[in-house]
Sequence to fold (990 residues):
Amino acid sequence: MLLEKKQNNRKNIISLIAVALFLVVVLILDQVILPTNKMSMLLTVLQKGSVYALAAVSMNLLNGFTGLFSLGHAGFMLLGAYTYAIFTIPNAVRDTVYMYYDAAIRFSLPEVLRNSMGSLGTVLGVIIAVLLAGLVAAFFAWLIGLPVLKLKSDYLAIATLGFAEIIRAVFQWGKLGPVTNGSNLLKSFERISTFKLTVGATTIKLSTFVPVLIAVVCIALIVLLVNSTYGRAFKSIRDDEVAAEAMGINLAKHKMISFVTSSFFAGVSGATMAMVLGIAQANNFKSNMTYEILLMVVLGGIGSISGSVIGSVLFVAASEWWLRGLDSGVFLGINAPGIFRNGFRLVVFSVIIMIVVLFFRKGIMGDRELPEQLGKLWKKIRGLFAKKVKSEEVADHE
Amino acid sequence: MSDRKNVLSVENATMQFGGVVAVNNLTMEINEGEIVALIGPNGAGKTTAFNVITGVYAPTNGRVWFNGEKIVENHPHGKMKKMYKGECADYYHETIEPTPDKITARGMARTFQNIRLWKSQTVFDNVLIAKHMRRSSNLFTATFRLNKKEELKQREEVLELLKIVGLEDVKDELATSLPYGKQRRLEIARALATEPTLLLLDEPAAGMNPQETLELTAFIGEIRDKFNMTILLIEHHMDLVMDISDRIYVLDFGTLIAHGTPAEIQSNQRVIDAYLGVAEDAED
Amino acid sequence: MELLQSILPYLISGISVGGQYALIAIGYTMVYGILRLINFAHGDVFMVAGLVMVYLAGSMPLYFAIPLMIIITVALGFIIERVAYKPLRTAPRMSVMISAIGVSYLIQNLALYITGGLNKNYPAIPWISDRITVFGMETSRVTIITPFLTVILVVALVLLINHTKIGMAMRAVSKDFETAQLMGIKINNVISMTFIIGTFLAAIGSMLFFTNFIGVVPTSGAMPGLKAFVAAVFGGIGSIPGAVIGAFIIGICESIIKGLDTVLMVNGSITEQVGFATFSDAFTFALLIIVLVFKPTGLFGEKTTDKV
Fold:
């Protein structure tokens, strides 16, 4: 027992160091890579990858860990994106954004806090807006969860899908225009390209660091939750609902916790998406977005958090970067504009996904996690190279 | 019956599905420290009775008391009012239908006829999850690991339980990789982890060979003594039932046809008739 | 009278749209009845039927194009089942549903690639797209024909299911998949037949639907598909008459909501636009959630109890 604890502590420290290193690397990349550089695609992938990684992990919490098949993710992301956008549009430009309406909400959190606290206020304002985005999504999840969480598998899927469509319609309704800007897009709010820190004469750009940091923190929270006693209860509901209930786990309560938490993080990812793209428009949050996120989860492996992260980053990298050539005439040196034209990338992509769905049903990671797999690999490598170390390892185990 | 404290009392429980009466006017009592068996031919309504007691089904009519508290009550109402075929229709007037977890929280735990372990979880985690209900942590403290003490205590308790049921050596294996007999033991361990005062076992010896059945019989006795447990079990292995039970209830076609000590049941003509060949089996 | 006059066009077009939804909904309800699968790709097959028609009509006379379009659509439905669903017969239901979503994604992207995302004009089919005047309002003939054609097709289908051997097999399979298999019913043939019938009706439906629309885009199938599915749930999934009635109700409600602003303004109840039309889609889903919560088995569905 004690030994186990010690090993766990070591693992935790290694993970923490790895994450910290990653964040430092991102921060450095943010400074070194100029927007004109070819490698700037890497930054785009990191930015959008964070958005989708968080979205995929939060969906996985629900679909993969609790076994609730919900397809309402786009709706919760929409709520998050709009909440964030509405509360961060500077007052000076609010009237140009709400061209056809008389804007009802007239304060911007970053602006208000900047006036009282200086540049730190901007950061704080953005953080509060992001949290608010999550809370709004969570609140709506609670509302809709009360009636629909009783439904079984595919009925739940279709009901949540319907809910997302309703939200989308409501946000485009002209009568709500003063708040949502109707069917017009929201823009000019705080976005990543303006995120920077000025220390003396040097300016540190944070445009990639911020979305990555948000994703890292949120995913870390989800990991903590999944490995807690609540996470274990979720898994028991996924494996066998009847047994879980018979063992004293309150189904309604735990399903609601999972649904609301998942939606909170979906809302945060929606807010992050808004700050990355610089615009928010209800029409972008169609059910296709939910499907894409679901496919990322499947690609990475349902029930694996690291799988979802890998799946979504691969998805974004492939569609934004590596497979670009498929759309623009030249791919891997083959010049065939007749075939490699607009849309071919997505076709190739969907075929790959279908292959995964049909033949590699477990996805990249199955239900395993990357750190433990790496740990096993590391032990194997050590075992191969040094027999002495190996014998120690055995002793270590006993 | 005896001067011991009453643990479970089922009054006039009737369970009707559509037009089919699965359990008809069942009344039974279990006292502290007893092992009581519920037997009957296939389809007699034994598991349905279990499901009524544990809250999986709300009975159509009847009442269940547990440790002196009314936990389940219902009377034919709504659509059922006209369709009701059972007796005692106007005895009860309240509707108390708790979900199974609420009943488990009061100290009643069960196993399942067709083993229902959590497939993707290890032996250890299967038992640990059953401890979830007895936590004092909330979502926040659990996520941020502020419940370390409790978590450690629960883990030690689980380890202790696994030692008692003899599954300590396989604690890190997947529950479904265990042989059948051990899976049954694990289910019992999982039920015990919820800290019950009454344990309901649904055919614990199903699919076991005579040797395993013998071991299980001893095991159930051990549990009763060690945990001061009251046990209600459904079983078809008559040697086990006759060996271990203090009292036996016999169901046939949903109706209670006999009740008494093992010796009384063995000589009961109605029971022999209901079982036909099976009753002879019980005598050897 | 004035109110009736103003509501009539919406009512008639609602009945027509309802008929088109009904033809799609049958595909959903039959597949769900047998495989317990929401065939998310069904709406996209419906869109493909429209696109195929666009391309075929450009290169051959209509009397070749229409049958060929139907054959291609049916073949597509058959292939989808064999390639994407059959290998997952023993897999958890969630995997099959994900596969269906994957197929839907693939078809839409393929259509996007082929059309370049452009709106394709649907060919005018003589006679049915002619303009005619009924009750003093001008509309195309297809609007009037649709409900009748739908009812004829549904009656034919119900006869097929109740009075033929394959129909009996279908009923058996939808009652109990495994037992039917044990009784020697060739399950794969029955499932294929279900997909063939479903896609055939969707192909007919697409002809009626797109004639009244400006054109076909890759996402044209998604919304009608979802609504048809809602209709199937509303009517009680697995029940064909239920799906048809559900489809007509949804079609009519949706159409009236679209025109509610105009109607209420004629009526004098409101003086300015409220924007009800925004909710014509949302209404369907609100209805869905209400039905699922209060009567999950729909209007005509059968109740099932889970066994422990």
Remarks:
- The radius of gyration of chain A is 23 Å.
- Strands of chain A lie at 186-187, 196-199, 202-205, 279-280, 330-331, 334-335.
- The longest strand of chain A covers residues 196-199.
